[in-house]
Amino acid sequence: MATPIPQGLTDAQAAAVTTAHATAWYGLHDLARIKAGDKVLIHSGTGGVGQAAIAIARAAGAEIYATAGSPKRRQLLSDMGIDHVYDSRSIDFAEQIRRDTDGYGVDIVLNSLTGAAQRAGLELLSWGGRFVEIGKRDIYGDTKMGLFPFRRNLSFYGVDLGMMSLTHPQYIRELLSTVYRLTADGTLPMPESTHYPLADAATAIRVMGAADHTGKLILDIPRAGSSSVVLPPQQVPVFRGDGSYIITGGLGGLGSSWPRRWPPPAPGESYSAPGPLPAKRPWRQSNSSARSDPMSWWSAPISPRPAPRSGWWPMPRPPDSRCAVCSTRLPWSRTPH
């Protein structure tokens, strides 16, 4: 599916606009029918969708209530001129909004929170309220939701533009054309974005995984020359130079074959295996002697139940290393324990 980019938008700007603006516009404009005077609760207001939703709500003349997950992000929302800012990591936002609205609540919730926070947002809706769900966890987890709040003539909308692109591609094409046009003519602002060169994609992914960014992360593709980004699978190192590796079930048949096949650890790296049982000591000695590098062994029962702190086992590993667990056991639900 292709959509023309209007004049006034660069390729990078169009990439930043695509999902965030389209999701916010579809949810607030097409589904919730936002209008002047509506009280709108926007969760995760500093994210890409949240920033677009704030712009759409302002353009419509709505009153904005927004949440964010850290003091820094909440301060950012306040600096944007939003008077009603709350903590998205506590369901206290619901009671605080009731207090700030003299018990009215809100007309629209643009939701990305899960569990109890999702239910708190639903119960916060006033008569005829519209709940727009853009999260996926509760939907794909088939989370149960009580129907009692719907006695107030509420509407619940689930938004999944990825699915719509498969079932209604023409609608998505028109939706993208709309948000591109509104952004190009200044009706909607460009989302805040951070740019990375394509060769630095790994850094961008780490930043995204840490959820410590605002707005969108953009990878800039060079117009000329070449850039090495993705290594062929056979060239990707399996082991980290600063890692430690635990083999559970490492004294069994499958587990015992792994250390023989693994390459020697790099400087600062170590392998460890829980055990050995007394009957396995000869195997341990023969297997360890087959390797030129040291391998750590210690006795430790493997159980799905958390061990008391006094029962934790010392494991020699570099102080700043990360640990990977390589399991040769069946899932706990299929093993006697």
Automatic annotation (TrEMBL):
Q: Which Pfam families match?
A: ADH_zinc_N
What are the boundaries of the signal sequence? none
Keyword Transferase appears in the UniProt entry: yes
Note the InterPro entries from the entry: ADH-like_C, ER, NAD(P)-bd_dom_sf, Polyketide_Synthase
Molecular functions per Gene Ontology: oxidoreductase activity; transferase activity
Disordered: region residues:
257-322
Q: Which domain of life is it from?
A: Bacteria
Q: Which UniProt keywords apply?
A: Phosphopantetheine, Phosphoprotein, Transferase
Does the UniProt entry include the keyword Oxidoreductase? no
* SMART domains listed in its UniProt record: PKS_ER (SM00829)
Enoyl reductase (ER) domain: from which residue to which, for each copy? Answer: 1-219
Report the Gene3D superfamilies cross-referenced here: Medium-chain alcohol dehydrogenases, catalytic domain
Name-wise, this protein is Zinc-binding dehydrogenase family protein
What organism does this protein naturally occur in? Answer: Mycobacterium kansasii
